[in-house]
Amino acid sequence: LDDAHKVFESMDDPDIVAWTAFISGHAYYGNASAALRLFEKMVSCGMKPNSVTFIAVLTACSHAGLVAQGKHYLDTMLR
């Protein structure tokens, strides 16, 4: 993920695909806290998450046993 981080940080204006790929990578490798931080940063930058982004976030929560956070993101997704 170090190389992915360098590539991501070098992007001037990452799109939803780049954000989602980076979030997914952290979720896949069990780094839920980084995945959730990235998601919040993405949203604060004005990027609207898509269904694939939410799947990555819910996967991160699931793998880390973060039930309350998972419910929060599921509720956000349903709004």
UniProtKB/TrEMBL annotation:
Gene3D superfamilies: Tetratricopeptide repeat domain
InterPro entries: PPR_At4g14850-like_plant, PPR_rpt, TPR-like_helical_dom_sf
Keyword set, alphabetical order: Membrane, Repeat, Transmembrane, Transmembrane helix
PPR repeat feature ranges: 15-49
Record keyword Transmembrane present: yes
Transmembrane feature ranges: 16-39, 51-70
Keyword Repeat: yes
GO terms for MF: RNA binding
Gene Ontology terms describing biological process: RNA modification
NCBIfam families (alphabetical): PPR
Name of the molecule in the record: Pentatricopeptide repeat-containing protein, chloroplastic
